[in-house]
Amino acid sequence: MGRVLRTELGNFWKDGSPGSVHARLGNAWWAWMVWVFTLEESAACIGEREFHIESPNGEVVMPLTLCVRAMLLGYAIECALKGLWVKKGNKVVENGKYVGVGKGQDHNLVQLSRAVGFSPTMNETDVLHRLSKFVRFAGRYPVAKKPDEMQPYEVPMVGKVDVGFFSKRDFRTVQSILNKIISQISGKKRRVFPPPGSLAMKRLLLKRSITTTRTKP
User: Fold this and answer.
1) Distance between CA atoms of 30 and 210, rounded to whole angstroms?
2) Is the distance from CB of 92 to CB of 100 less than 8 angstroms?
3) How far is CA 139 from CA 69, 88, 127, 187, in A?
4) Coil, helix or strand for 8?
5) What radius of gyration, in Å, describes the C-alpha atoms of the chain?
6) Do 42 and 199 meet the contact criterion of CB atoms below 8 Å apart?
7) DSSP-derived secondary structure for 38-58
8) Residue ranges per domain, the chain?
9) Concatenated DSSP letters for 175-210?
10) What is the pTM of this model?
11) Which residues contact 105 (CB under 8 A, 6 or more apart)?
12) pLDDT of 15-67, one tens digit each?
C-alpha cells in the first residue's frame, strides 16, 4: 500500500457523499473556526518577519507582504463572522448550494458584520471597510475590478493615503475585532493572540468537535 496523503483535517470525503460533507462542514461553526485560527496564525507568521519601515523624516513605508497579512486577517474575520452566524443556528449551505449569510456580501466585512448581528464601533467600522479592500484586491491583485475602489483615503495631518496602506494601529484594531467575534462564539472573553501552542489547541478543538459530531445519533 502506498503512502497516505491528507491534510490535518483528515479525509472528510470518506464520511459521506460530497453533498452531505459539503453541508455538514459548511453548517458547522467549528469548521469555520479551524480556518479562523489557521488564517490568523498564517498572518502572524508574516507579522513576525515583516515590519513597517519608519525613516527619520517621518515617512512610513509598508512592505507589500503586510498587504497579504491584512488579507489573511480579513479572511479570518470573514470566517469568524460566518462561524458566528452558524453558531446562532443559521445555515450557509442549503439544498446542495452555498447560500451565504442573508444579504451580507462575503467580502464586505461591514455588511457581513451587520448581517450576523455583530456591531462594530465607528472606528472598527472604518477599519473593516478598509480591510475589505485587502480581501477583494489590495492583498492579492495590482488592481480592483472597479477604479473607484482604488481611490485613496484621507488621513488627518497626513493627507491622501493609498488604499494598500494599513497602519500598525489598524492591525491592532483588527486583532481586537477578531477577539470580540471569537468571544461571542465561545462565550469566553479572548484578550490576546493565542500563545505558541495554539496550533495544538486548534487541533484539540477540531478533534473534540469531530468526536462530538460523529457520536451524535
Assistant:
1) 9
2) yes
3) 8, 30, 15, 31
4) coil
5) 19
6) no
7) HHHHHHHHHHTT---EE-TTS
8) 15-205
9) HHHHHHHHHHHHSS---SPPPTTHHHHHHHHHHHHH
10) 0.85
11) 111, 112
12) 678 888 888 889 999 999 999 999 999 999 999 899 999 999 889 999 999 99
Strand partners, 161: 153
CA–CA dist 38, 192 (Å, integer): 16
Contact status, residue 178 vs residue 194, Cβ threshold 8 Å: no
What phi and psi, each to the nearest 5 degrees, are found at residue 12? -65, -25
- Separation between Cα atoms, residue 201 and residue 182, nearest integer Å: 14
What are the cell numbers at 197?
501552542
The residue written with cell numbers 527619520 in the block is 56
CA distance 174 to 169: 9
Cell of 164: 494598500
157: its cell numbers:
495631518
pLDDT at residue 1 tops 80: no
